[in-house]
Design goal:
This protein is about 30% helix and about 15% strand. By secondary structure, the chain is an alpha/beta fold. Strand 12 and strand 13 form a beta hairpin. Helix 1 crosses helix 10 and helix 12 crosses helix 13.
Length: about 550
Amino acid sequence: MKHIVTFLAALTLAPLAALSAAEAPAHMPQPKLTRAQCEANIEKEIAKMAAGVTAGPYRADWRSLKAHNEAPDWFRDAKIGIYFHWGVYTVPAHGNEWYAQRMLLKTGKKTYYQYHVETYGEPDKYPYHYFIPQFTAEKFNADDWADLFVKAGARFAGPVCEHHDGYSMWASKLTPWNAGDTGPKRDTTGELERAIRARGLKFITTFHHERTRTWYPRVEGWPTTTGDPQLQLLYMNIDETLFDKIFQAKLGEVIDKYQPDLIWFDGQMQFIPEPYHLQFLAYYFNQARKWGREVMVTTKKLQYPQEVSVLDFEKGRANALTPYPWLNDDTISTGSWCYTADLKIKPAVQMLREFLDAVSKNGQLLLNISPKSDGTIPQDQRDCLLEIGKWLKANGEAVYNTRPWLEYGEGPNVLKKSGSFAGSVDYTDKDIRYTRSKDGRTLYAIALGWPQGKFSPAILRIDDATGGKVELIGHAGSLKYRVDDKRITIDVPGKPPCDYAYVFKLAGFKTSITREAAAARDEAMKKLQSDLNNAYKAEGKKQKAKKK
């Protein structure tokens, strides 16, 4: 799984210590950790992980790792979590979280070069690492964030530990460029871990650092080709073997320090050779056994086998019911994943209805928010989260601890394709989504708009109504209904009990779906799996071509 990348190590910039006061921000500090110290600590972490693999039941091979439960019940019960793109890239607050790369692209539609030059100067005069001391997070309050996550209805939460820019958002001994020694000079991940766990939520960590070495443009004379040994550990202007070790060691350090319940990965994991993945997974699973907890991993495009990790769709969902749990990671905004000055926030009604669609199909949501560089979460994002939380507080029994029913739903407005970047749907009162209690005794029919007068799902069949009871969550008392030829018609109150979506609770009935609905479901599931398999094969061929 090796890939070939030309190594550029030209000594084109003066060492960091030699930068003049005129070139650097007045408070540009010298990193505390030396390159030699970092490399020694990396080797120690790799050795510790190797010992942890041999000491536990999980071995560094796929057959052993597939014995792990890839989707524990806590994840399937939790349904919704929150993470956040918060890092150095929020200082320029322009474009998106790829600023560090795009400030170096002189041409193309995705370039931020001209903006950077006009605002700060040429990249060799004002490089990306000059933003680090400005990332002070002076208003960051982990307890305030955790309280907000609870109010939003989240059951798991945690940070983007490292994005493609090479900056570690925790107190690390493996790189000089970490939040404990630079920028905030605080272990922000540690503070969040304590605050999130104190409120009974699961703690997660997400990683995008698998592609840093191939992500930065290598322009002679610019920081990404620097010979400074410390800066090379930020811009990853290093040899491939060291980069691969850093990828694994950073995972091990976060596992050791924060014991995450879930580790999420971004794409292009195939850039890292397989042995490093196997060592990480075996170490993580073995450590979790010592902690007495069930942990899990998610990847995009099945970059780990489906028996080992949960499939993640970026800004997407399945368009059919699936037999396996999956995750949708989406962002609260219409644009960038990180805070920018012009960020626009999606309406709560859109976020909530798309979330309910995912849950009905065996999905879970990891929702991204975008804090500012000073550590504040803007009010418009808070308002959206609180609206979602308000709905979940009233109607959560139809979401938390539920499982999919015989079919995910019905109605005219459907997602046209499965996978990442699947687009959005405008749902109405004609669209219904189903969930059920884990014991199968209660069915929840969720109308994604307020039905007028009568509510009569088309695919739902009542095989036995003896002892059956219908309620509208939030409305006092039972609802009147009748069953004719196995089809139920429910009298709807004149006033909705909440906003956005409405939960009809059917308890005590024996239910099924029409033959036509069952046939359509089976065909949709078959097509979905075929489409996904073809997409993964195509992705594999594309990545093999890139390696060559």
